[in-house]
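2024-03-11 09:14:02 DEBUG pipeline.ingest accepted 1 chain
2024-03-11 09:14:02 DEBUG pipeline.ingest length=120
2024-03-11 09:14:03 DEBUG pipeline.predict start
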Amino acid sequence: MIELLATRWAYATFVLVMVTGLYMMIANSNLVKKVIGLNLFQSAVFLFFIASAYVEGGKPAIVPPDGGGGPYVSPLPHVIVLTAIVVGVSLTAVALALIVRIHNEYGTVDESVLREVSDD
C-alpha cells in the first residue's frame, strides 16, 4: 500500500484536496468559506487532469525534423486546465461580488441567517 501511494502521490493528493474542498462546501455555513472550498475542489480537478496526462519518458508534442519517435505528452489536458483556471477565477470573482452584495444587503454572510431572513 505504501509503495502504491509513493508512486501515485499525485492521485492521493488529488483525493485529499478534493475531499477537503467538498467538506468545506457542505459543512460550512459561511459563504466565503464555501467559495474557498469550491476553489480547493477545482484545484483538485486540475491536479487530476495534469497527473493523468503524465507519460513516463514523454517528450513535448513537437516532432523534430528528423521524425524522431518516442512517447509524446498530449498538450490537450494542459490546455483544458488553463481554460478551466480562467473560468475558475471568473467564477470566484462573481461569487465574491455576490457575497459582498449579500453582506451589504443583509449584514451577514451566514447561510442559516440568510435562510431565516428570506423566509420572513
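2024-03-11 09:14:41 DEBUG pipeline.report The chain has five helices and no strands.
2024-03-11 09:14:41 DEBUG pipeline.predict end
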